[in-house]
Write a structure and sequence with these properties.
The structure holds 2 protein chains of 2 kinds. Chain A contains 14 helices and 18 strands. The longest helix of chain A is centred in the first third of the chain and has 30 residues. About 3% of the residues of chain A have low confidence. Chain A is an alpha+beta fold. Chain A has a domain of 371 residues: Creatine Amidinohydrolase (Alpha-Beta Complex), CATH 3.90.230.10. In chain A, strand 3 and strand 4 form a beta hairpin. Chain B is an all-alpha fold. Chain B is elongated and about 120 Å long. Chain B contains 4 helices and 1 strand, in the order ααααβ. Among the domains of chain B are: 42 residues; 31 residues. Classes of the chains: A alpha+beta, B mainly alpha. The interface between A and B is large, with 44 and 30 residues. Strand 17 of chain A pairs antiparallel with strand 1 of chain B.
Amino acid sequence: MSLTISPKDSELLLKDKNILQESVLDKYRTAGQVTQTALKYVTGLINQSYHFGKEPRLTIPELCILGDSFMIARLEQFYKNKVNERGIAFPTAIDVDSVAQGWSPEMDDVENIQSRNKNSPLESTVTGILRAGDLVKITLGVHIDGYTSQVSHTMVIYPPGPQPQGPLLGGKADAVAAGHIAMESVVSLLACALTPEKLPNALNDGSRSVQGKAIRLVVDTIARSYDCCVVPGSRVRRIRRFLAGQNEGIVAEREFKGVVWTESHQEEQLVSNTGITDNQEIALRTKNSVTSETAVPSDDFTVKAGEVYLIDIRMCPQSELDKKGLVTLQDVDPYTGKSHKNDLVARSGAYVRDYAHSYHLKLKTARQLLTKIDRQGVYPFKLSHVSQVFPLDVNGSSEQWASLKKDLKSYRLGMSEITNNYLCVETPIRLTKWVPWDHLLKSTNQNGTLSFDATAPLSLPGHEVPLPKLGVSSLKLKSIVNSCPESKLLPISRESSTVLLCGADVSSNGGRPELLRITGGSKTCQASWIHSKFELNSQDPVVQSIFQLAQLTEDRRFGISIRETQPMREH
Amino acid sequence: MPSKNSVNKPKLTENLRHKNHALARKRADRERKGLINPPRSHEDSKSGQARSESVDLYLKGAPQGSAVTTKTLSKKCQQKIERNMKYAEKRKLLTDVQAKLENEMDVEDENQTKEENKRSVKDAFWSALEDTQSSANLCQEGQGTTLGGPIYP
């Protein structure tokens, strides 16, 4: 189903509103500033609670709601009555170790989560209390008038003390290093799109422009050097007003531009050296070009000035595994009593409104809730965002927590009717799982790719079949992951950042084109202290060009110029 | 007598009787002509094929046993049939040659290709799994990589 919009309107909404001019730039910059400050705030809270030992220690659900409250409170100061919509673009999610995305539980879910996950291997996630050695991924985002900024950062929890005793070692350190270096390299590679003459030779295919293939090459090379795997769901994509990837898989986006990593790319990488022909790949591509070519992500695109990109990279270490395997994502569901082993049973905290559906709700609470939800726009939201007591105060009384829980009780009732009628879709919680390849190869697959998983959320168009060469459908993969005794949870690191490619006309750098990094960067997303035993192999031509990129960013005069949005001073 | 469209006329019974009668007549006619025999399911049936009395006469000769017949074959018609059969023979030879050429081009059976393709994909996976050399480009000899420092960021 597609909405019909007049060409004049779509021209205005998709083209004119996305031209980077001073007013748009300012909205992006302010959104980025709020996001940066919120990230700093959340990392500060975690440091206070877990490193400096301030009591009481804040749990994950509390940190999430405080992060959201902070964003809303900060946004109040900007663009009041000047724009129709502003708010949280991504509710604060705090994913620990193997949780890949979406862990932002509500306050009233704490007891449920703890009672249903008695023997779960994800102890920090279940109890909500972080432990030393955890990889904590903080993800949050803010939008002003649809201009979205998002950030993710991986933080390491050390034993409490005035300063860390030593660096983190092992596989988790590899993942953090790979994620951090990949992020910095991709940012400088995107900056090269503004000054293509400075693009290193190994990343240039003769067209003198930054291609999608070059982005993939850089990230894959770094991942390989650190014995890591790029986790499916990672992406480097162009974002536009209100189209910031928050509805990927729910709404097929026309003119999708970006590099995505899926299971099929791991499959391709594995067999790329053995020289088999990729008939299926060709078949897939030709079929798509007939139907909706532009909604299907492919690497054949050129990064251009005036575009905004979201870089979202997740890495998972493989050095501690004795076999080659596939890294995939497993959705968490709220149902107990399943026959297979459950690592986590939980319901997701965030929802996305699906405006394509309409239904007349029967319950009064549901109707009231939907009215409130409709004010939140197209971005994900949590039920606590519509509560009366929101935004909460970090130093406030304990009564606010009690009244929040009371509000949530009636919202839950209304929300069940809303989700049952598909007016809202849950944003899934996903775990990173590893399955050995030999298990996949030995399993029988009678139905091939014909079996269809109607419940699979968030698969991009053209990537519905996770393993096209082997002919394994997502339903089959799901059952293999559940049934395989060797499948494992893997820790991952995640870095994401929003960058603006400002041409010479809007740049604040005296007419020189520059890349404006509105989230992430050296002020908020410094890497934690880690040491990996691997390093980049300087003999490799791609690695050499990665080093060249790093040098170019440091060279103020002849290099590429990157400007970072700083967090606000004191909260 | 009431007309065909008269109100008083018993339409259904009359019309049905008339229709059945007509159909029966046609069927009997075809049977008499030998068109129903052999039945369509029979392998000798010529249903759906081009039918010619003269060709039948040329190939099978005059029908035996019946005293009087209207089926005849003129001398001219016979010559024409002979000539046409000569050309048909030549055409057949030509198509045989073409078919032979095509067969030589190694057109494989589709099912067989699919099966083989699947097998080669799996073989490729197995060989990739057994290959342990490809992970050898990891660089571990140096100092490794250290990020950050002894502060909480």
